[in-house]
Design goal:
There is one protein chain. By secondary structure, this protein is α+β, with helices and mostly antiparallel strands. The protein has one domain: 3-Layer(aba) Sandwich (NADH Oxidase). Helix content is about 35%, strand content about 15%. It has seven helices and four strands; from the N terminus they run H-H-E-H-H-E-H-E-H-E-H. It has helices at about 5-10, 25-35, 55-60, 65-70, 95-110, 125-130, 160-165; strands at about 45-50, 75-80, 115-120, 140-145. Strands 1-2-4-3 form a four-stranded antiparallel β-sheet, sandwiched between helices. Helix 2 runs antiparallel to helix 5 and helix 3 packs antiparallel against helix 6. The N and C termini lie far apart (about 35 Å). The mean pLDDT is about 95. Bound molecules: flavin mononucleotide (FMN). Flavin mononucleotide binds next to strand 3. Flavin mononucleotide (FMN) binds near residues 11, 118, 119 and 153.
């Protein structure tokens, strides 16, 4: 699939089939994350692959909506902010790195016919406990992963004119 088609084809999948994911597809998605660029190539992140179905009650605490429980997999992107690059104003780019890693994986999943939904609205203390995160490791983003059981919805986006400023804001 051409990249221009892929970005239109990806959408937030909120219903999943229970079919298992082929190990080579899962590996390709993780590889896409590994190949993502990070600021100064610090690679200050780690990935947790979890199966919500193993402990539905715990995952319901992690995220209140049902979608996570329906997906066969959940991938959590964690950062190590102390190892991440900072700019001259001390802005830490760990979260930006995490978003790029996630986007690589989500688009790779879409190319392989898999569905994802990015999740930021999870409970961080629950994530720290559930995934036994050591000090200095921060859960930043997650996405559910599985074969879609719903349909592509129309994309609602601002116009390019309202987003792009020529030469100055
Ligand atoms: C950083 C980020 C956080 C998000 N967090 C959630 C979330 O917690 N729960 C959810 O259902 N969707 C979440 N989404 C999905 C967005 O709502 C969705 O991408 C947006 O409405 C556009 O729809 P589309 O993905 O189908 O194109 C998140 C998306 C992004 C980029």
């Amino acid at each position: 699939m051409a990249f221009s088609e892929l970005i239109l084809h990806r959408y937030s999948v909120r219903a999943y089939r229970s079919d298992p994911i082929e190990p080579e597809k899962l590996n390709a998605i993780l590889e896409a994350g590994r190949m993502a660029p990070t600021a100064c190539n610090r690679q200050a992140f780690g990935l947790i692959i979890a199966r919500p179905g193993v402990d539905p009650e715990a995952f319901q605490q992690l995220y209140h909506r049902e979608l996570m429980l329906l997906a066969p997999y959940l991938i959590c992107i964690c950062t190590l902010p102390e190892q991440a690059w900072k700019n001259i104003e001390s802005k830490n780019y760990a979260d930006v790195d995490a978003a790029i890693v996630l986007d690589h994986m989500v688009l790779q999943a879409a190319e392989l016919g898999l569905g994802t939904c990015i999740i930021a609205d999870f409970n961080p203390p629950v994530a720290r406990e559930l995934f036994e995160l050591p000090k200095g490791v921060e859960p930043v983003l997650m996405f559910s992963l599985g074969y879609p059981a719903d349909q592509l919805k129309p994309k609602i986006r601002k116009s390019l004119d309202s987003l792009v400023h020529k030469d100055r804001w």
